[in-house]
Amino acid sequence: MNRQRGLLSPWLTIRVQLALAALFLAAGIAKIVDPPGFAHEIHNYALLPDAAVNGLALFLPWLEVLTGLALFLGFWRRAAAGIFAVLLIVFIGALSINLARGRPVDCGCFGASKVPKTEAQRLSDMKVAIARDVGMLAMAAQLLLATRRQSP
Fold first, then answer.
1. What residues in the chain have per-residue pLDDT under 50?
2. For residues 125 and 31, what is the distance between their CA atoms, to the nearest angstrom?
3. What are phi and psi of 21, to 5 degrees?
């Protein structure tokens, strides 16, 4: 019981909230400044029809920024954490599908990559990105659980 109280403590929850907000704000802003580069990254995943790529490249970064800002300011914390959890599940899935295909892609998580990489480096980076996203998903889960206790 003490462990659960510690994982749901306000002290931890506020830090998780601010960390998730900062990560998604940074990721969204990096994508907003280079829509064509981000659209190229989305296209490389080969998971969406070409007609959907540009729309997603314009919409997703703003969703990340606005939701990150809401979380940072403490508005709609539970909804923001839920949106982040769904996004992270989608990101993990997209990376995992391409990893299983043996198709190296640059994550695009924090904007388009400017450094050329080998296939082996990109495959390794994908594994790191999946691990990072799983960690962030655990953070979103912590925030969802902690805010559930405060909701009516």
1. 1, 151-152
2. 18
3. -60, -45
